[in-house]
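Our collaborator T.R. sent over the components below with a one-line note: 'Predict the complex.' Nothing else. No constraints on interfaces, no templates requested, no preferences about which chain binds where. So this is a plain run: every listed entity goes in together, and whatever single assembly comes back becomes the starting point for the next discussion.
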Amino acid sequence: MTKTKIGLIRVVSFKDRKIAELHGKLIEHHYPILQVISRCIKDQPKGIYNDETEALAIPNIVELGLEFEKEGEVKAIIISCAADPGVKELRKKLSIPVIGAGSAVAALALTYSDKVGTLGITEGTPQIMEDILGRHLVAEAKPDGVQTTLDLMNEQGKNRVLSCVKSIKENGAKVIALACTGYSTIAIAPELEKRAGLPVLDAVLAAGLAAWYFIK
Amino acid sequence: MTKTKIGLIRVVSFKDRKIAELHGKLIEHHYPILQVISRCIKDQPKGIYNDETEALAIPNIVELGLEFEKEGEVKAIIISCAADPGVKELRKKLSIPVIGAGSAVAALALTYSDKVGTLGITEGTPQIMEDILGRHLVAEAKPDGVQTTLDLMNEQGKNRVLSCVKSIKENGAKVIALACTGYSTIAIAPELEKRAGLPVLDAVLAAGLAAWYFIK
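Returned assembly:
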């Protein structure tokens, strides 16, 4: 099988190569035709968790995107963050598809139902997901006491997520779009599906699905 | 490779089995893991082309959907029409995913750009696609002199489509969502891409993509 390379931009400056490559590996596992080259933005060890950290990240995301296209190896680029930071900016500069995890998972949810719930981490539903979901966004939840994506990597953070997800179904949603790619890092979607009794859509996998479609 | 069966409902009462199965074959070709069982609604040889014919079709679509689920063989159902007729009704009755070609292609377009154009046949953009695209719908076009999906099956109809597609790019769209599955029947998307200079998304293939994701 000839694999097609895509670029993936992590918006957390992970030093650990294995952690940096987790989203890429998840995509490769689900879409074996894709080979993912993962790169992290510089100087943001805590990632994006509010407007300020998002604004800081955008020039670095654009820089990585330009670098990917200049090298000419990848056929599409994924920005692995549910807020789609830098996606609009990069689309203006690049000729290859630029897929944002947030827009991808919101869109995928709309293929399943017109009643969508989101599960965020700190800031609720990112603006780009609200824009796409519009009046189809019927429920939102986020765990108490979680500040950054790193807090999800321990047992306490995970339990907090599991205990808040039920309210989304109670509020009328028929499908849940994960509104943070930190959830992909801990691959919590299957467990959440059982707990919530609804399909739970992973933002990184949704981005991989779109990238796979557009490179075909 | 173990194939997964999905059901596909055609909203035109084709007598010719080969034509009836065209959308299913297209999906099988692009997603080899899927095996598509195609069925046509009864009594509508001209298909759905206005509100009246849509209203007529819905009970028949629901009947076919219930039949698919009762037989227990398929893991998802596609309604192969860009107006998503019967999708809402069937989702209330069935436990397997029900994918509409219109919502699927509109959603897929949003993973690529926030500036989407649609290419309809007779009635412009179906309501369900307008609902999903919202303010991201920036351009619409439809060919002159085409009344039903059958008119696309001759050379004159095809030429009329090709000559109207350029205006979509001129009006600012960055991607085109085909707003009628009649375009899938004539597999015109690649030719339209060349003419329009933009990615052109086929509604049947978009529905296949979503179905494939949800049966995994």
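Summary for T.R.: The first strand of chain B starts at residue 4 and ends at 10.
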